[in-house]
Specification:
39% helix, Muramoyl-pentapeptide Carboxypeptidase, domain 2, 3-stranded antiparallel beta sheet, 308 residues, 11 helices, two-stranded antiparallel ribbon, mainly alpha
Length: 308
Amino acid sequence: MFKSRRKFLAYLGAAGIPVTLGTGSLFLGSMKLEAHQTKVATPRPETPPPTLITNTYKAPELDIHNWDWQIADNLAVAKKTNRERPADLILHDHRIKTLKSTVSRLKRLQNHIGYGNFNIIGWDQSLKLAKRQSSIGAFEKAELDLIEEVFSSDADNMGFYGEKVVTQISSTIPRKEIKKIPGTGHYLFKGSSIKMYDKIRKDIGDDIVLTSGIRSVVKQVYLFLNKATQVGGNLSTASYSLAPPGHSFHAIGDFDVGKVNFGRRNFTAEFANTDEFKKLADLGYIDIRYPENNPFGVRYEPWHIKVV
Ligand SMILES: [Zn+2]
């Protein structure tokens, strides 16, 4: 695909991917490695080809009788191929172990503090808690590196073109500004978010309910990395069904609604066929953040209510 190694490196540079020369490894967003990079004048010709990115993504075959999250995601990927997309960003094999241990540590953290609290927990608090609680265990260096690299890397390289709304991994959600919504395990920001939610319930009835409210950076990291484990460490594929950490508007006011007792189907296109969704649309609530065939590289989400 590239006529020369220099063209290839220029392409990586243009794509914002830091390159280490001489070791043959490619990483995304590592500050230390970038510093190293400036010292090296010319690439060594024997450098083996990088393995972090690849062009060989193949969408899995669809089985219509097995409709679930995975398949909804695959459909989104299939649709996305209409657009010019960058090469998939895939974690090196040796980091898959770290990916999995990070996800299970975050899961243990969630079990420890509870589902509701985990939605709004801050990064610093998470680190402290993990260290203190032997049932969670302190984050390992490799795990911290992975989280920081994913957080600080340019989402454009994953094929995600949405805006970054939280730029600091350590940003916190002020308790004074939020309110827990009874029976949901979720929180909403006081002001516009709660007003909109209350109005929706007043207009449509108790059959419509909050399914995901405020999600802190930590929660989004967990959801995103968990999705990444399901797709072999392919961060690009993960970003089609979940905004990468820092890019979710759930951190600043958007929320999801669903139909009571509709379970996981609330997060599939099936929700768009419910009476509740039709009422939402008729009443003009559906100013969807990510409409069908949107330019942001995100799947269509009829359940997501835009507030911000
Ligand atoms: Zn949402």
